[in-house]
Amino acid sequence: MNQFFSFQRFSLLVLKHWADNKKRYLLSVIAFIGLLIAWFIFAMLVDSTIPLSKELQMITYFFALFVVGSFYANQYFRDLGSRAKGINFLLVPASAFEKILCSLLYTVILFFIVFTAAFYVVDMLMVVLSNRFFNTDIANREVGLLNVFEAARLPIEGEAGVNILLIFFAIQSAFLLGSVYFQKYSFIKTIISGFVIFFIVFCFVFFIYDLMPEGEYTNGFFRSYHIQTTGKDDYLVTIPSWPGQLLYYMVMYGVAPFLWIVTYFRLKEKQV
Question: How far, in Å, CA of 111 to CA of 175, rounded?
């Protein structure tokens, strides 16, 4: 049998994880639905003139997604924080690659589907109730359900934009790595490490941006800059813009897969 990946072995690992955690998962979903209902009812009672606006729905969805998703991802490899449970986890007859795939299946794919489905079940019910019991001026508020995939796209400048869901998957992958890397207080240590790394990257990007000359003009695949000389005149310097575009796509789409790969090698070291 292939020691790297076996579909039969992977299927058994997925079923084993569900059998070990199904009660906790079901109770967590019920608790999340209850808290969401309580929050929406509270929001409708506090502001009955604009109940459940799309802005409120968007804030609720993404705030809960980041908090719950990051905490769940950080708890997936929690057994590694205990010596006895960690030994049992490492002795499970599955490769590190299969365990990483199982973690991604639950923390990324299934979590996002279940979370979004639970949110929409509650959201649809609450929107119907708010439209039924609160007689407000429709012209003064946005009614209807939120489309999370449209709300996730935030334009920045020109054609550039940021997808909140991609940021979420990157942050979630960082907490998944933290659960493998830190044995104790992994959630808190991951938050601290993340803030430190973000601050360093932010300072570096700000420093590079501050060094860029003013007067940028876009011309196809090239960008022109006005360089001010010591004299009265300035001159144009034209450089290709594709390195910046490549860096943008690498940051937006490559952070999460990169952290998954790092998590795999970190888990593989523990397996050895």
Answer: 14
DSSP secondary structure code for residue 35 in this structure: H
From 145, 93, 106, 143, select the one nearest 28 (Cα to Cα): 106
Q: Hey, is 263 helix, strand or coil?
A: helix
d(CA 9, CA 74): 24
- pTM confidence score: 0.83
Q: CA 222, CA 205: separation in Å to the nearest integer?
A: 21
pLDDT digits (tens, 9 = 90+) for 125-181: 988 888 777 655 554 445 578 888 888 887 765 555 678 999 999 999 999 999 998
Q: Is 24 helix (H, G, I), strand (E, B) or coil?
A: helix
Residue with tokens 């907490």: 175
Strands of the sheet containing 222-228, edge to edge, are 216-219, 222-228, 234-240
Q: How far apart are CA 257 and CA 170, in angstroms?
A: 8
CA distance 43 to 57: 10
129: enclosing H helix or E strand: helix 111-133
Are the C-beta atoms of 79 and 86 separated by less than 8 Å?
Answer: yes
> DSSP readout, 209-258?
HHHSPS-EEEETTEEEEEEE-SSS-EEEEEEESHHHHHHHHHHHHHHHHH
- Residues 9 and 45: their CA atoms lie apart, in Å, by 51
Sequence-separated contacts (24+) of 233-237 with Cβ below 8 Å: 237/213
Q: Tokens in use for 248?
A: 């943008």
Number of neighbouring beta carbons within 10 Å of residue 16 = 13
d(CA 139, CA 134): 14
Question: Domain boundaries in the chain?
Answer: 7-271
pLDDT single digits (tens) 31-44:
999 999 999 999 88
